[in-house]
Fold these 2 entries.
Entry 1:
Amino acid sequence: MDFKTSLCNALERATGIPFDQFEEMIETPPNPEIGDLALPCFKLAKSLRKAPPVIAQELFEKLGDIDGFSRIEPVGGYLNFFTDRSRFAKTVVSRVLNEKDGYASSTYGAGKNVCVEYSSINIAKPFGIHHITTTVLGNSLKRIYDHLGFKTVSINHLGDWGTQFGKMIVAYNRWGDREKIENGDSMRELVALYVKFHEEAELDPSLNDEARAAFHRIEQHTPADWKLFQWFKEVTLRDVARVYDLLGIEFDSYNGESFYEDKMPAVIEELKDKGISKIDNGMTIVDLSEYDMPPCIILKSDGSTIYATRDIAAAKYRKDSYDFYKSLYVVAYQQNLHFSQVFKVLELMGYDWAKDCVHVNFGMISMEDATFSTRKGNAIYLEDVLNTAIEKTLAIIKEKSPNLENKEIVARQVGVGALVFSVLYNNRIKDYTFSWDKSLNFDGETGPYAQYTYARSCSVLRKAREAGFDVDFDIDRLDYSVLTDEASGSLLRAIDALPETVRQAAEKYEPYLISRRVIEICSCFNRFYYDNRIMENDAKVRNARLALTEAARTAIRVGLYLIGLEAPERM
Ligand code: ARG
């Protein structure tokens, strides 16, 4: 039984006011000592034409007993409701134990498709630390939407088009070493070629003309150049796959900017036909002055397309291919204007689905660790940061748990998790400075703390099993009155809040809400663990506490999964 439903039903019966209205009005008091649920009666004052305290008192007398509640209290303008603690424990524990990894999932999004574009790296450029937020935020949103029953399409909109690829061809043909690129750090080798091109072009500007010509040959799909261009992509993607593997991230589509090359003429035609674009100084633009924005350039004066043109084509392609309910773009706030322009142009084209395109923007990340920013020029490679996190974690594990098996695997799960968690612990728009000490702390509000708590819950159940106790709980026969103490109650409430948190996270595109809920469940579990002896001799007490441990363990695992972390069983 759902307590809120039971309460709203009773309120509807007592007042004749529809269920839905009560569902909106009911609040969760900040402190359970006030009540588990509350009705702020001032919200009824207008329609009932009575003072809130009077409404509270009258409703209290009319309601009588409500199924699932042990006490009702009128306090001033509020009516406070206390749930029956054992009934509450039974509801929460049985739901989690039944649903397992499906806990907090729903069919809310059934039949709806959501495009989630994230990471969107650039070919032959560093996959840097600045790309971590889009990568992990997008991955988390994808998992959250999947969990809510939507069908997601994850898209890596590669930056694989533009004159820089002409420069790459020129640089490669002059100074490139195929062996080195194939077998070494491909991305670094390509970036080095790009840097060299710019140094040399300073001395010999004619290289720039060569580069333009080379890019033109790519546009014409001239075999030798086209092949090289594809090869740059291939080796870059092979390189970045290592990072995606570490993070446990996959994409359904790698359709990047070049994919839209042959889809743009139709868009340009359409803009002209609908009278939306105009020629200005030889450029084709969409005037957006009416909306307080600079014009959106569609074609430069030399007739070449730009970034925005490709995004307009991409948005249309995604609508046509996936008929999305929403299309998310997880991209830094520096591109706010760009997306406002693109979405506005789509709207002007008459596409009402332009309103379903969402720029999920986020703030900047910087590193506290100075050794990183100076070591290799100004690009900090994400792979280096991840590997450093793993190394540092391995050192901590060797010290803390010298007997642990598979130390390397756990160090990867925890090191990578520490980084991911720290990025997803604050609201996304905030600029953020990464600190090793804070992120790798096993006691703070961190990934390692959550994973450590998870491992502790696993160890409790493992020991119970090893002691020969039954841990396949018979949900209907547990004594839930064992779980009515304060510590158990807080833990149950934290677990119970997860499904609503997941919905909120999806609605606001804010995975950090889940990270915080996970930390709350963990700290409640740790309090429960210290306050109560789980391995009691009394089987009734022991079983109920073990079942709650299993529920907490499941909720933590689900929460961690949704933000992109693995959950090691031993640490
Ligand atoms: N590749 C771009 C960058 O690294 C991000 C692409 C964002 N997505 C888009 N559809 N424009 O800055």
Note: The pocket of arginine is lined by residues 117, 120, 122, 157, 159, 311, 329, 331 (CB under 6 Å).
Entry 2:
Amino acid sequence: MFRHRFLLIANPALGQINPAIHFAKRLINLCPAHVTVVTTLYMHRRITNKPTLPSLSFLAFSDGYDDGFIPTPDNDYSTYASQFKRRGSEFLTNLILSNAQQGHPFTCLLYAPLLPWAPEVAREFHIPTTMLWTQPATVLDIFYYYFHGYRDYINEKTKEDPNSCSVTLPGLPFSLSARDIPSFLLLWKPSVFDFVLPTFEKQIQDLDLEANPTVLVNTFEALETEALRAVDKFNMIPIGPLIPSAFLDGKNDPDDDGYMGGDLFQVSNDYVEWLDSKKEKSVVYVSFGSYFEVSKKQREEIAHALLDCGFPFLWVIRENEKQEEDMSFREELEKKGKMVKWCSQVEVLSHRSLGCFVTHCGWNSSLESLVSGVPMVAFPQWSDQKTNAKLIEEVWKIGVRVDNEVSEDGIVEAEEIKRGLQVVMGNGEKGEELRMNAEKLKGLAREAAKEGGPLERNLKTFLDDVGTGPT
Ligand code: UDP
């Protein structure tokens, strides 16, 4: 009955799970395929609004922290990662075996970044594997070259002169300074997440073992034309933007259950009414994604900037961010804006009242803003967000970056945030230019995702090539 049975594994983070689910739905709509999405029990339970489609299943395994992992001095992220790997590998092995025994073997494993153990398991059973890269192609290029002779060059240049160095890499039509490079790569700037670097390396080394491996990238041709071709060794196929189709073509699929993205917190959607009451392009939306915790000090700087600027704002402050020690001027904030613990971000961004997105530049947030034509105040924190901010500000020119490298404690001050807001929301030449570029990219994103367009064609090519069973 099914031509393909995909096993799709993502890390327990919405930044991987949302695009994975949108991708699964696109596969199912295109051909007789069944997709099993695997993540941890904790994440599985937290996302309460998972789509319910007959050809889509969700399975979960315990990573040993079913109430969520909180690092301690004796139990840090690297200990967690090895446990996650051990339990995940065991789970995948049993799942692959039991599906085969029941007469419906998986025909392909799709895996998100930072899970090199997953394809290792699949290969033992001769199941073809393909990586679903959930960051821009540019970031994959940077990783590739870093692990192919450019590690010392990148580190030496950026360490010597972080602000004005100019790192150039083959095939990329722009140069990078220290603040544009994924943070894990800068060895002279240690962080608690440095343990992920060998995992990234392993995943690039594994791809090296294949001849011209296909990597599915959540981007589109017009957005990253050169970056998609910067590594000869890879066959990068753009299959993005992975956004609910209702926000790309304004249509809901007849079989669609309306999944807009995972809800991590249950909230009332009274913010929609609030947005409805605002003028066109007048609202500033502030969110730092599903994971990063904004410090109290940084929240206060943001609050000052918002109050001083006077634009109405919708601000996501998640439940797990420390509410008890919150801003002394909360009352004043509530008069001018609305604060929520969560929202349906794609719906917010596509609301006619949206004028600007103050974002941490997670790749999903960046793409969601781009697809809705909303210019950004780029406020990157770490990882690929640094490169995404560079693309937003300097390459696509759809936002203003506020710089957190300047202050010693990494805090962006209110004045700097105000500067960004005033440019993006203002009537000056720069603001006009940003809005025009954002509108243009919105059109190109929709073009990429239209019926019979590049996204669909690329997926069909992938489906034809992927084969229909173990090799
Ligand atoms: N998101 C949401 N509501 C919120 C905050 C975030 O739906 O209030 C979604 C957002 O639409 C995006 C995802 O959470 O799809 C965050 O992914 P991103 O890559 O931007 O950042 P991460 O959470 O991985 O840092």
Note: The mean pLDDT is 93.
